[in-house]
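Reply to dn_fold:

You asked what the input looked like. This is it:
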Amino acid sequence: MIGRHSAEGQRYMTVREEAGRSARDVIRKTGDFIRGRPILDGDSVDEFWALKDVTFDVKQGEAVAIIGRNGAGKSTLLKILSRITEPTKGCVRLRGRVASLLEIGTGFHPELTGRENIYLNGAILGMSRAEIRRNFDAIVAFADVDEFLDTPVKRYSSGMSVRLAFSIAAHLTPEILIVDEVLAVGDAEFQQRCLGKLNSIAKDGRTVLFVSHSMGAVSDLTSSCALLDRGRLTAIGPTREIVQRYLCAVVPFAAASQEDVGIYRVRPAGDAPVRIATVRVIGTDLPLALGDKTFSIGIDLDVVKPIAGAHVTLTLWNANRQCVTTATSWDADQPLALRGGRQRVVARFSDLPLAPGDYFVDIGIDQSMAVTLDAVANVPLLKVVNLGAVTHWPQRPWGAVHSDAVTWSVTSDALV
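and this is what came back:
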């Protein structure tokens, strides 16, 4: 459906003019500007590549998301794929009719009514008059604008405009549908209808290219994902894997990079036989996806003197400082034998569903119920994100939940 895309995108030039120069001088040196040389003596010309070395293939029937930070080049890429903008270098090969929804009301005339704009916009997108007539009732019903069909579009709200624009593009039955981040304008009910329509389009064997900052929508709709960063393609692969990589980059939350938790220590420094050095989630990628109930917390300890019967108590809190769960090796009747040197205690949770959000942990090392050897509090541990598995998560306070599904182990392997 879509062949190889090899586009180096758009090259933009900005010129800083010196004050006091005449328009005649500027016009005279227009040729210099076109050739990339300064217009005026002493001026500088800066080049900015919105896309650089972006090459990928999309197969027929694939639903592919394009994600990245603001300014990464996503919209420029879609404009190039839609043949709105020509790349400075490279080429795009498309096989099939393309419909694109990049900006609200693109191709709408504000003075024309909704009815007239359906015919106008449909013709711009390549629909024949007979095709528009055949799909007219379905377009109006999907957009839910039948009461305002004979009202000029300039009186439509932004939500009404995007509903009508999306409905026209979706009923074009294109082989390739390109959608930018415009669905965020609609209400929740319409967004769900749009995602359902995009899903049905993808299941019909047509190709969908989708740009969105909603990772839930991206995960729900697409099977493959491309990650852009500063105009370059940094990764492409399964949606879940790429979304987690993107969230890890833009949400630097977790103790995975916390090599020393000393700033969270709640006991004064002393000659205790054991010190907590590092706390982190191990054995899985961060952030956790909603629905991942199994994960392990690794606690790296510096053991000065061997301890035959140590115990670890772990309390997990949400961002509102509400206790989510408490786990302790005391309940497991499993005293931990700590040898000298670097030791790792692992607490493995096998059934602990967590709501989306940030989580913190308190950890204490005890030798008896009355003697705490070391303790840290409020250590940032992990983030849970909704990748589309649940569309609505009830907001409710959490009480203390005692978790029995925890296993404890000790190894001599330092955390890496």
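The chain has two domains: 60-90+97-250, 255-411.
Hope that clears it up.
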